TrEMBL record, chain A:
PANTHER family: GEO08327P1, TRAFFICKING PROTEIN PARTICLE COMPLEX SUBUNIT 6B. InterPro entries: NO_sig/Golgi_transp_ligand-bd, TRAPP_component, TRAPPC6/Trs33. Residues 60-83 have a biased composition (Polar residues). It comes from the Eukaryota. GO terms for biological process: endoplasmic reticulum to Golgi vesicle-mediated transport. One of its GO terms (cellular component) is trans-Golgi network. This is Trafficking protein particle complex subunit 6B. Residues 49-87 are annotated as: Disordered. SUPFAM superfamilies: Ligand-binding domain in the NO signalling and Golgi transport. Belongs to the TRAPP small subunits family. BET3 subfamily. It comes from Dispira parvispora.
UniProtKB/TrEMBL annotation, chain B:
CDD domains: TRAPPC1_MUM2. Part of the multisubunit transport protein particle (TRAPP) complex. This is Trafficking protein particle complex subunit. The keyword Endoplasmic reticulum applies. Keywords: Endoplasmic reticulum, ER-Golgi transport, Golgi apparatus, Transport. It holds the Pfam family Sybindin. The lineage of its organism: Eukaryota, Fungi, Fungi incertae sedis, Zoopagomycota, Kickxellomycotina.
Automatic annotation (TrEMBL), chain C:
It comes from Dispira parvispora. Keywords: Endoplasmic reticulum, ER-Golgi transport, Golgi apparatus, Transport. Signal peptide: none annotated. GO terms for biological process: Golgi vesicle transport; macroautophagy. This is Trafficking protein particle complex subunit BET3. It is found in: Endoplasmic reticulum; Golgi apparatus, cis-Golgi network. Transmembrane segments: none annotated. CDD domains: TRAPPC3_bet3. The keyword Endoplasmic reticulum applies. GO terms for cellular component: endoplasmic reticulum; Golgi apparatus; TRAPP complex. SUPFAM superfamilies: Ligand-binding domain in the NO signalling and Golgi transport. Belongs to the TRAPP small subunits family. BET3 subfamily. InterPro entries: Bet3, NO_sig/Golgi_transp_ligand-bd, TRAPP_component.
Amino acid sequence: MSITSAINLFRQLSVDESQPSGTTQTRQVNEACFDYLFMEMVHTLRSQLQAHHPVPDDSGSVSEQASATDRGSRTSASNTHDMPSTREVDEQLLETLYYKIELIGFRIGQRLAERYSKDRPRFVDTLDIVKFICRDIWTKLFRKQIDNLKTNHRGVYTLQDSQLRWLTRMSGDEGTLQATQQAIPYLWLPCGIIRGIMANHGLDATVTFKDLSLPQCTFHIKLNKPS
Amino acid sequence: MIYCLYIFDRHCQCVFYTEWNRSPDRSRTEGSSSFSEPPTPYVWPRPLATSTTDPRDARMDNEAKLVYGVVFSLKNMVTKLCHNKDSDGFVSYRTSSYKLHYYGTASGVRFVLLTDPTVPSLRDVLRQIYLHIYLEYVVKNPLFPYDPQQSRPISNDYFGNMLNSYIKGLSCYQS
Amino acid sequence: MAKQYKTLGDEIWKNRVEPMNAELFIFTYGSLVVQLVKDYEDYDQVNQQLDKMGYNIGVRLIEDFLARSGWGRCTDFRETMEVISKIGFKMFLNITPTVTSWASDNKSCSLVLDENPLNDFVELPLDAQQQLWYSNILCGVLRGALEMVQMQVEVKFVSCVLRGDDISEIRVQFVRHLQEEVPINDE
């Protein structure tokens, strides 16, 4: 099969917005549907990668335990006894995982932008778009606005959420540091979403997060100057 | 007065135990003001992060098995004796020194709470623990490696803290 | 009985769940399917992967269902299917598929989905229409959830509107009741 056709899966999306049944406009589902899907998505993508790049443990085989505890921990304590090569594999794996999750988020962001920005007045500038993310999008996704927005007025925006809904249930077995490490892959999705929304409005940005302290998180948007 | 809580998974394993108002030597210090609760309650199986041991660890494995055995037998007996399909089945039993409250789900998760004999039915309390604490911080916690084929002790902070504050907020907690 | 389940399902949806706009969920699922298609380049494998993911979701989601509905009784397969349609689907996806086409032995039936949020905004390219069961995750969810309540089933899509069929139909075949685990006596 061709990959192009796969990418076209959503071809009709923007065209279809006029929409078949009126119910679709306000369709609602249980929030838990997303929670379960998101959890399983990160889990599946990770196991998929681990199947391709087995991470050897002490016994030389891939153990269930290792895959469960090493979830996205760049500097996990349990890794300290591993061979450097394992760490490299780990790094590579995380790199790929990042790429996939962020890209999934990016596509979601584009769709969300198409869906939610059509009913509102045109954006006057970049700040206007960032505000749209902080207010409209955040409210749709999390039922609250971003708590704090800062900008240096030179293309850098800092969005702080003191209680990111997707992080509120995250608590690990091995302390806060470990939990924070394990939470990282879940943050790549909102990073991708933000980047997707910006891109949908013609803005090329790099989106990262910092100061992760569950369930608080700060997103960092940096506009890339057109070369 | 609430004494302790056991949670068993579908593999009949105790995945969580914690206790309140129960002094380490297991004899209750009734009316004694000198007995103060430790800031964090005793939890078993021990969290992976802690390397310390507790004298209570040794007896816990056996105790949990005993409790499970009793609950399992009683549940079966009650089901066999009672032919009403809508019945809740085994709910609690009482001795002169304690009362055991039971709530089990169709998926095999079992909650057992021990209290003093005067406490009224806490079946609803156990349901609330299942709905608002177990569901939120075990089932829906992305960092809990949930695998129905394997037993996994619950040892995350949120779960413990939420449970602790919920139990301590109950009117029957210390009365 | 069916009426009573419908009332309970409606009540749970109204009072005991957090509804949200479906877009985030729909777009996430779609974006995930796109990713899987890119990764596997094979629709059969994507179907399998979606079913597997559904299973993993189902084993968690059943606890959500039981906790929120308070459902605790052992029921037969026929009753279970009514509960799934009127309470299960209702409380998660806000839809109520029709339970129909019962086999004479009462061991298999169909769930006909008059609407399916996952399908919103989706149109499959031609080659995918031949092979991809876009919402296959639902089959896995049912399989996983039912296994946790000691019911082994086989679940598969037999038709889907995204493939040009008139209806979307999931076939559920009861296999057997599983035994609850009993404590090991190590004395």
